[in-house]
């Protein structure tokens, strides 16, 4: 292998992932595939193992950067006080690298497909743009299978390191997700890099001209998109508008809380809840269990909230969550929608558990048993024994308006919110807690970008109630219209209009991947026919 090809592959990986560790450099990802394609296509003859290794190196560097904020900035109390600091760091690096490995395997396969089907013509552009979202989808599947246990939600759900989210930093580019969600955003990044590479590599004047025109049209659409969005108002209040109150707290993780400290935290949440006025929906950050506490200590919720709510026969709806131990011995994270006026509750469960923190892969438990370390990690394993719940149905929150609230890492799935929109959800909520990240700027940025993609792909309002991370509201076009101050608790008020849009992604969901699959299939058939003609 020529070392310069390996260097080009690594450079491409750095360009693709740098936006996760330096958020203002997100736009560099649009150039990332050019050096990588040069690495795998520059040599006239290439062995499969060489091409696969270059693709693997590209993916390992890129995903290594993209998963850095979510794995290497987290802090686990249950582990930190049972192992030495160097061991704690080593465990974190191991979990990060094993996650990256699962996704890098798919980029190796991506490199093989591109090398095998490339024709040194303009057809390489749709080839790369089609094969990449399939590779990222496959990587998420490999990750879910590698982390198999009873609590895992199998499928392409864990996309926290997918590069399409980088485009959510730009309000015009994120509109691409309207077509195909995260899959379309991933395809767009690969498309840009493929165009740049082919403009440089092609010897055909006509192809260079055609690609230049395509690039110019894309630039015009981008400028036009920004101009249109800048003139587009957030939306006038409709008769069906909802007033949302999203509570924000700043409770960092602590290994031990004194009784006084615990009481102070509870009192502060109660104080914020009682300060809410004139809201249709009240959101409480993940895992607070406030409704359970109020029932135990105060009785009816209507007598606890502000007196202005007592006269309402319907609403407001308070949405909270708590860990519950079921009758069958399983533990799940449960969402409760409590209608104060009707005194009725609806329940749902968290589906996409965060790996290692909320569910431990069975293979790691078996490794700990084999090494005699089960007792050492007993507390960590107990803390991370949650199981995924059944899919929920949207819940009426005001008259006939239906909404869906998911929990924290549910939002990283490209499918769960889409599924709720397909079932009739008109507004999206997320109850989140990022205490383990202790206010990480990188995770704050990533959370906001993921929320923007979720809002645009379904054209729904997205309101997040956060602990440590700020509470915020995203409009259906991916624009953040309101947020709480960083590091300060309080209540965010926002008015949202319910939407019933059926976008291409809401209609077809994961089925949008049939388009790139058919393109790759057609190019495979074309290559087969060409080889058959040469053989005859």
TrEMBL record:
GO terms for molecular function: N-acyltransferase activity. GO terms for cellular component: plasma membrane. InterPro entries: Apolipo_AcylTrfase (IPR004563), C-N_Hydrolase (IPR003010), C-N_Hydrolase_sf (IPR036526). Keywords: Acyltransferase, Cell membrane, Membrane, Transferase, Transmembrane, Transmembrane helix. PROSITE patterns: CN_HYDROLASE (PS50263). It is a multi-pass membrane protein. Coiled coil: none annotated. Residues 242-498 form the CN hydrolase domain. GO terms for biological process: lipoprotein biosynthetic process. Pfam families: CN_hydrolase (PF00795). It comes from the Bacteria. Gene3D superfamilies: Carbon-nitrogen hydrolase. The chain crosses the membrane at residues 6-39, 51-68, 88-113, 125-146, 176-197, 209-229. It is found in: Cell membrane. This is CN hydrolase domain-containing protein.
